[in-house]
Amino acid sequence: MLYDLFNYLDQLDFPGAGMFKYVSFRSGLALILSLFISTAIGRRIIDRLQRLQIGETVRDLGLEGQINKKGTPTMGGVIIIIAILIPVLFCARLTNIYLILMLITTVWLGTIGFLDDYIKVFRKNKEGLRGHFKIIGQIGLGLIVGIVLFASPDVVIRENMEVRSTSDNTIEQVNFHSNETKSTKTTIPFLKNNNFDYAFLAGWAGRYKTEATWVIFVLMTIFIVTAVSNGANLTDGLDGLAAGSSAIIGIALGILAYVSSHAQFASFLNVMFIPGAEELVVFAASFIGATIGFLWYNAYPAQVFMGDTGSLTLGGIIAVFAIIIRKELLIPILCGIFLAESISVLIQVCYFKYTKKRYGEGKRILKIAPLHHHFQMPGDASVKAIIQKPYNIVPESKIVVRFWLVGIILAVITIVTLKMR
Fold first, then answer.
1. Is 164 part of a structural domain of the chain?
2. Smallest Cα–Cα separation from 285: which of 118, 421, 90?
3. 73-82, 169-178, 206-215, 408-417 — which is least confidently predicted?
4. Among 86, 168, 179, 403, which is 20 to 30 Å from 215 by CA?
5. Is residue 181 included in any domain, yes or no?
6. Domain presence at residue 356
7. Strands 160-164 and 171-176: what pairing?
8. What are phi and psi of 238, to 5 degrees?
9. 173 — phi, psi (to 5°)?
């Protein structure tokens, strides 16, 4: 909204109105606004949740400090969503197709998460929204994102071309194709030929190769959206863990979006140039400000939990953002915390079922899953787990900070991989 207003004022030579043309200025403003909104309205929303007695229900798993969390207001993800949407609506160019997809993602998954929390809190159903309804919602979002990226004429790239020396075959410079084209190519880390085309997976389709390629792309989009949003949901188990990890990931994605939308930086990193992706930097700034501001109340000891309203939304935003800037194959590195949490649950469940079927008694690999809870439980012979270390309980705040540090390392590696090839 403000973009169009100041653009009009700039045409009238209004002093300072031209600042709104710069993505850096609008991103900085969005960051400040989101920080202010999340901290300013956070207290009021928490008080409102407390008056409505919207508190967390806690199962006693024998974890340190777990019972103390009972009754802490949940559904605090509403704070994050509001702190993202308002700055974006004010500071971004709302006609941008990528921004529209991010707004749809935020509202879509925020609604699914809100319904899940509502059922848990108000209807006293601990299971919340049934799993298959969540999956249907995530698949629906994946379909929308994949089809829009396929059908919209505004979704184009300019592919990077390497100019190599004839003497030693080193890269002298990176240029871009003059024409903007629709493409199913994405960035792949570590390899010299850094663009991977999904068409490679559709060679079997013959003359229907183009159609099959987009089907594969849409299916990949659905998988990534579902996996990352569920991974973020599993990570939301300790005070500040999901919010802090998401903020770190958001910073990395914001950098990648800026690089991808800037021809000179894209040339330096040898990645494709994506016209229009600069508006995603404004969204990333709002995302970062909202998650950091939420930590004001969510850091240990938490005054509010984000609930599925927040965790599903954060994961979905990260997934769709990465897909749009053609960096989805970097997600296993960038979202390594989410991946580890998901894998810990998967192997725990599978191993327990396997040992119970084979030996009549279920055994565990970790003391408890997801992974972050494993460090909260002391090593004990009564717990039949393969991995007993650490034997002593690790304080919750220390677990969270260590996970953040790992997340920072992974974010740095993600960006560095673009030059490690």
1. no
2. 90
3. 169-178
4. 179
5. no
6. no
7. antiparallel
8. -125, 155
9. -160, 165
The answer to whether 308 and 98 are in contact (CB under 8 A) is no
pLDDT at 164: 65
Domain membership of residue 403 (yes or no) is no
Question: Is 145 within 8 Å of 98 (Cβ atoms)?
Answer: no
Q: Show the DSSP H helices in 152-278 as ranges.
A: 209-235, 241-260, 263-269
Question: Are the beta carbons of 77 and 53 closer than 8 angstroms?
Answer: no
* Number of domain units in the chain: 1
Q: Show the tokens assigned to 397.
A: 């705040």
Average pLDDT of the chain, as a whole number: 88
Q: Return the closest-CA partner of residue 403 out of 195, 264, 212, 247.
A: 247
What band does 9 get if pLDDT is binned at 50, 70 and 90? low
Number of residues that make up the chain = 421
Domain that holds residue 153: 2-158+196-332
User: Cβ(253)–Cβ(162) under 8 Å?
Assistant: no
Q: Which of 238, 265, 200 is nearest to 376 (CA)?
A: 238
9: three-class secondary structure by DSSP: helix
Instruction: Say how far apart CA 265 and CA 233 lie, in whole Å.
Output: 34
Higher pLDDT, 302 or 1: 302
The string of DSSP codes covering 352-393 is: HHHHHHHHSS--BSSSSSSHHHHTTS---TTS-BS-----SP
Which tokens is 141 given?
Answer: 């979002």
Q: How far apart are CA 247 and CA 251, in angstroms?
A: 6
